[in-house]
Amino acid sequence: MTTKLHVATIGSSWCRAGRSASFALFTLLAPLLLTGCGGGLQSVLNPSGPQSEHISRLWWFMLVTCTIVFILVMILLFAAVVRGRKAFPDPNAPPEKETRESERRRGLVVAIATALTVAILFAFMVDSFFVGRGLTAELDRKQGINIEVTGHQWWWEVRYPDVDASSIFTTANEIHIPVGVPVTFSLKATDVIHSFWVPNLHGKKDLIPGKISTIWLQADKPGIYRGQCAEYCGHQHAHMALWIFAEPREQFDAWRRAQIQSAAAPATASAQRGQQVFLASACVMCHAINGTPAGSNFGPNLTHLASRKTIAAATLPNDRQHLAQWVDDSQQIKPGNRMPPNKFSPEDMQALLDYLQSLK
To answer: Which CATH class is domain 145-260?
Structure first.
């Protein structure tokens, strides 16, 4: 008897401990789950443009509606369970009358539930239709700009066309746009299917080899917005990101004027030696630096490399340490990319880094 009591006590303690642990775990995880609703640099819940506003509104409408439906279903289920545990009805009641009344109530409940379901689905359909029209309707692009984006494994080539050939330039992985101005993106891919997605500004758009896709968006608020390839494109798909910098028009125009310029001549002896190292190495087989004999477009254009915040498609911050690691052996950082290891002497590496960091 004592043993049984002891076992029961232990079991009861374990149950209380389990409930306490479950409650504590829920208390810790709930704030983490709720942080996902706060938006951020890459979130449809933090819209910063007209198209993303449409998408966000549809998302919230569907979430609120489905939450209400879920709560109602749980209430009805709980009521049915409680009612089922009550005593059986009076056995003296006429069975035929009880059956007819039950069938009528069940039929009424089913009819109401069906009508509500149809109404909700119809509301979703109508709202989705108008959101789709809002996404596909062209913005007023009279004062807009055009940008060409090409997806590669695994980086983004960004070209700013212009009627004046001398004003055309190419950069990589970072896109600057003016605030409040419609921007038309012409999208294409050279190898496999990629997908251009900046959730704070618009939905997804596929880049298909041999086809040019178009998407237009507008940033209504200054800021930095993260984009991502949203179509699996190979081993380093997760490391194919981009940044969009939405700036006031004056700041954007100043950035654009700077990008049009050729690379500045090396100002120090070390940077001059670094330029010689670059031009004498295999780097010129893949990269271009405007104003120098390097003119290959196989890899990212490096004319203004030092002005970028990140390297390797937003994989690493653009500082001296990470740049050295990337140049030395990028396969250790981003396996499968097309840049081979470059084994320079310590002196040549330091001179090369001085040169690359002068390209602003």
So the answer is: mainly beta
